[in-house]
Write a structure and sequence with these properties.
Layout: H1 3-8, H2 23-31, H3 34-51, H4 53-60, E1 72-73, E2 79-80, H5 103-138, H6 141-156, H7 159-169, H8 176-187, H9 190-204, H10 208-215, H11 220-256, H12 268-275, H13 283-311, H14 324-334
Antiparallel strand pairs: 1-2
Helix pairs in contact: 2-13, 3-5, 3-13, 4-5, 5-6, 5-8, 5-9, 5-11, 6-9, 7-8, 9-11, 10-11, 11-12, 11-13, 12-13
Length: 346
């Protein structure tokens, strides 16, 4: 019970609200979903690989920027020498066509860029979206109108066109991963978050415990921090978990178009850009970054769905397939046996 409810409790007002699921209940519900647990393990391994990229490349004895011209066949247009793209004890996943740069080193360092850009963009999107949504929901009619129209304007902006325009005019000296994260965060994503938070705020501010805090003289800021933000935590966390894979795909698309992260900084999308002419001569150069992107986005999406179900147990998981007969069998088994029919003529 909040401090505001304690202040007005003597009035006899019924201010009981359903409690939000605690941390223990959340982890228990999340553990019940095997797909979400598997996705969480995959995401944890990807983050660990990204953080330990210098250590892993040092263990291999390579780095992502050194050229190895002796490992490519210039007579064949720069195809790696040897099977499986030149894979060996010194180059675990082979080398890059034309340049001979180590594929393993570029993949693990590319994970740092893709995950770092997507997570950074998600944090900015959530912060700006929550601030705008709460301000619009708690403000007066004019503040709500102005902030809602600003949100609608940014919501209607085409991400790729705006990103291409902004990335083309920004000087090359600006750190490109930071620039890509800011563009993804400020052009798209936050506006959808703001509209969702505004709708939740409008629903929550009419509840008894929020009205009690406002009637007790609390400021709008104090009411938002102590009463609204705890109630907004579940939908915001759920939406943020689904924003991460979207940002990963957007960063890869920008790098694929040649306006994202610039060489020699490795990026999975950038590797796909260079691999489009090598899918026959060196297929691993295309398959490895594509597989890394697929696994990352798929694991993030499954984990986001698991977080959604764990925070809202009433929602049915979209991942449950093929369980209709099992549910029907359990329902029939739970029904008590009917009374035997009366004998005829009784």
């Amino acid at each position: 019970m909040s401090e505001a409810l304690a202040a007005v409790g003597a009035a006899g007002t019924d201010t009981t609200v359903p409690a939000a699921p605690g941390a223990r209940q959340f982890w228990r519900r999340l553990r019940e979903q095997r797909a979400a647990l598997g996705a969480a393990v995959v995401v944890a391994l990807l983050v660990l690989v990204a953080l330990a990229a210098p250590l892993l490349t040092a263990l291999e004895g390579q780095d992502p920027t050194t050229y190895h011209p002796d490992l490519i066949d210039s007579a064949r247009g720069g195809v790696p020498i040897g099977s499986f793209g030149g894979a060996s004890a010194d180059h675990w996943l082979g080398v890059e066509p034309q340049t001979g740069r180590d594929m393993f080193a570029r993949l693990v360092y590319g994970a740092r860029v893709s995950l770092g850009v997507s997570l950074g963009a998600t944090l900015v999107q959530v912060f700006v979206g929550v601030a705008m949504g709460v301000a619009a929901g708690l403000g007066n009619r004019w503040i709500d109108l102005v902030l809602s129209r600003i949100t609608d304007i940014f919501l209607s902006l085409p991400l790729m066109i705006m990103a291409l325009a902004l990335l083309a005019v920004v000087p090359d000296g600006f750190p490109r991963p930071v620039l890509v994260a800011l563009i993804l965060a400020l052009v798209a994503g936050w506006s959808t978050t703001a509209k969702m938070v505004r709708a939740q705020t409008l629903a929550l501010k009419n509840l008894d415990y929020v009205s009690a805090s406002r009637l007790s003289g609390w400021s709008t800021w104090r009411t938002a921090v102590r009463e609204l933000l705890p109630g907004l935590a579940a939908p915001v966390i759920t939406y943020a978990a689904l924003l991460v894979p979207s940002n990963i795909s957007a960063e890869a698309a920008l790098s694929f178009l040649g306006v994202g992260v610039k060489p020699p900084t490795p990026s999975w999308g950038q590797m796909l850009t260079s691999a489009d002419v090598w899918y026959q001569a060196a297929p691993q150069y295309l398959l490895l970054p594509a597989l890394a992107l697929f696994v990352t986005v798929f694991a993030m999406t499954v984990l986001g769905d698991g977080v959604r179900v764990a925070l809202d147990p009433r929602a049915a998981s979209r991942l449950r397939v093929g369980t209709g007969r099992k549910r029907e069998a359990r329902a029939q088994a739970a029904v008590p046996a009917t009374e035997p029919k009366k004998e005829e003529g009784a």
